[in-house]
Specification:
Strand content: under 5%
Order of helices and strands: HHHHHHH
Structural class: mainly alpha
Number of helices: 7
Shape: flat
Radius of gyration: 19 Å
Number of domains: 1
Length: 166
């Protein structure tokens, strides 16, 4: 029992520690940087790249978790901006992270025609996309959000109705 508890503790401790030199650098930057925006946006970008690596490796759950972390970091960076350029940068990073996560949720929740879709995952993806659509964005990001919302909405229609245009 004690060995099992120590093993779990060691795994949790290992996961909490920085995994790459880049993460160590961003932690050091937080301690030294005079502004709060730069280290947070840097960590958000690191989490996005980690999510993309996990997605490429086929680890959907890991990618979703990294995207959620990146989304949180980008929101925190957005709250600590000093000018409109930083606000725009953080907003675009947040929006694209949420849309990447929603695309992954769409692919995870959509199943072949002979199996029922996971409507809970699809509904969560649609809520995320709708949240992105409420924020002022660049035209390409706004178009991407609109397209993704239509895809998720169409996929949530029951049975063969998902293939019939509205």
């Amino acid at each position: 029992m004690l060995l099992g508890a120590m093993t779990v503790f060691a795994v949790l401790l290992y996961r909490a520690s920085p995994q790459t030199a880049r993460e160590v650098g961003s932690a050091a930057l937080v301690a030294v940087a005079p502004d709060a925006f730069t280290p947070r946006i840097s960590r958000a970008r690191e989490r996005v790249s980690a999510a993309q690596r996990a997605r490429a490796a086929g680890d959907t759950a890991g990618a979703l978790a990294r995207y959620a972390e990146a989304e949180e970091e980008a929101l925190t960076a957005r709250q600590h901006t000093a000018d409109t350029t930083q606000t725009r940068t953080a907003t675009e990073l947040w929006a694209n992270t949420v849309l990447d996560r929603a695309e992954l949720m769409l692919s995870a929740g959509a199943r072949p025609w002979y199996r029922a879709d996971n409507n809970q995952v699809l509904a969560e993806a649609l809520v995320s996309v709708r949240r992105v659509q409420t924020v002022p964005l660049a035209p390409p990001t706004r178009a991407r959000a609109q397209s993704l919302a239509e895809q998720v909405d169409r996929r949530m229609r029951p049975g063969p109705l998902e293939w019939i245009p509205r």
